[in-house]
Amino acid sequence: MFSLFAKKQEAAPAAPVVQSEGDMMARERLIHLRIKVKSLAAEATIIRREERRVCGLVRWGLQQHRKTVVRRAARESLLAYGFLRGASYARMERACRDAPDFGAVAAVAKRFGGDPVAMTAWVAEAKAYRKSYQQAA
What is the pTM (predicted TM-score) of this model? Predict the structure, then answer.
């Protein structure tokens, strides 16, 4: 019988690039990367809170640090985390004006246990998606 409160059937996620069967190190590295993503989000929140307390060049410097360094590092870490979990770039960033630094994403993914060959293929697919998206716009 049909129910209004039935759970939605979700598609099975793509196979992760990091094989976790029997490889506790891979799971631990994913946990460390997830913690890095969360700590970068917390850092942005803390910086934003401190911005309200100060003014002038100090506030401007905090804003620039949050908007450039922290935001870029968070994006690169999130893209690497998605890659390691098996998500495509098109699924993670459907519409984005600025291309990420794929070299930095690859470095983060490699640091946390990603396969360089799979990362190269993922980057090629991401660049092709960005090119097709820009042509459509």
Answer: 0.79
